[in-house]
Amino acid sequence: MTWLKRGVTLFFFIVIPVLLFNMIKNVEWQEVKDALQSYSLPTLLAGAGITLVSYLVFSSYDLLGRYYTGHKLKVTQVLPTAFVCYAFNLNLGAWVGGIALRYRLYSRLGLSVATVTRVLSISLLANWVGYMILAGSVFSLRLMELPENWAIGTTTLQLIGFALLAVSLAYLLACRFSSKRTWKWRDHEIELPSLRLALMQATLGAVNWSLMAALIYMLLPEEAFFPSILGILMVSSIAGVVTHIPAGLGVLEAVFLALLQHQIPAGTLLAALIGYRAIYFLFPLSIALIMYLVIEKRAKTLRKQAGTDEPDPQGAESSDDVARLRTQDQRA
Predict the structure, then answer these.
(1) Structural domains in the chain (count)
(2) Bridge partners of 217?
C-alpha cells in the first residue's frame, strides 16, 4: 500500500507541473490583467463577505469539538484559535496549521493533548464527511460539464460519487446504530459521536465547501455553471492533498484549466483563480498572523496566572493542566 501511495504522489508531482505549463504557455497575460482590473469594489467586498462566512463555518468545526469533548474554553477563545489554525492550514499545509499549530495554541490555553486530539478528529470528520456528501452528490448526478474528450471520466466520477455517498452514509449509520462507541489509537481514545453531532458535522462541512466554490463562481463570467465549479474544486482538493503541496499551489489551477477552459477563456479563468487565492488564502492569512500574536500573548498571561496559583478565568481544564502550564513556563 505504501508503494502505491508513493507512486500516486510521484505521478501527480510529475503530471501537474507539465499539465500546468502546457496550458499556460499560450495564455494571453494581458487578458488576465484586464480580467483582474475588471473586478468592481462591490464584487471584491462580496467576495470578502463570502470568505468571512466560510471561515466562521470553518472555525465552527472546533465548536463541535468543544461540545464533543466538554472542555471549558470559551467560544470567544475557540473561534479565534480555530480561525488562525485554518488560515495557516490552507496556506502552509495541514501539518503546520491543522496539527502542529492547533496543538500548540490549545495546549497553551490549557487543553490536554488527548482533548486536542479529539477536537482535531471531530474537525477533520466534519470537513471530509461534508466533502463526501457534496462531492458524491455532484459526481453521482453527473452535474459536472466535462470536456468532450473526458466522456469516460464522467462514468468514473459517477462511480466515485456513489462510493463517497456510501462511505458517508455508513458513517452516519454507525453514529446512530453502532454498539461499539470507542476506539483507541496509540495513546488516544476516540469516541464515535452521536447522530445529531454527525449530522451537524456533515452540514457544516457541506456548507463550507459550497461557500468556497461560490467565491470562485462569483469571480467567473456568467456562463459558468455552479455545480461544475463545485465539482472541479472537489477534484482539485483531492489532488492537492495527494501531492502535499501547501495551498494546492499550481494543482488548483491545473485542474481548473484542464476541465473548464473549453467553456471559459484561460486568461479569464486564471484571473478568477488569482483573485480567489488573494481573497480566500492571503487576506485571511494576514489577519491570522496578527491574531496569532494576540493569542500567544493571552496564553502567556494564562501561564503567569497558573504560576501564581490565581484562579483560571481562561478555561484550563483541571489542576493537572495548571501544573503542566506552570512547568512549561519554567522551562521557557
Answers:
(1) 1
(2) none
